[in-house]
Design goal:
This protein is of the alpha+beta class. Helices cover 32% and strands 24% of the residues. The protein contains three helices and five strands. The radius of gyration is 13 Å and the shape is globular.
Length: 90
Amino acid sequence: MSTKKVPLRQCIGCGEMKSKKEMIRILKTETEGIVLDATGRKNGRGAYVCPDMTCFQKAVKSKGLERAFKMSVPREVYESLEKEMERIGK
C-alpha cells in the first residue's frame, strides 16, 4: 500500500517547510486584493506563513509578500493582515 503524500509549503517569513494544513494562506485575488484565506480553498495566487506573529513580522521585514506576488504591497494591506493574524493566530 502506498501512503498519501502530504503537501508541503514554505513559510515566507522563516523559510521552513511545513504541512499545508499547519500554515495560513495569504491570497492575492483580482477582485478582493490581498486577503487571508483561512479555508485555503479560494482561487488566486497564494503565499504561506506560519500562524505565528514573529514569522509574519519577518515576512514584512524581508518583503516576502512582495517577492511572492511580484508586486509592491501597500502598508495598509500589511496592517489589515496583521490585525487578522492576531485574531486567527496563537
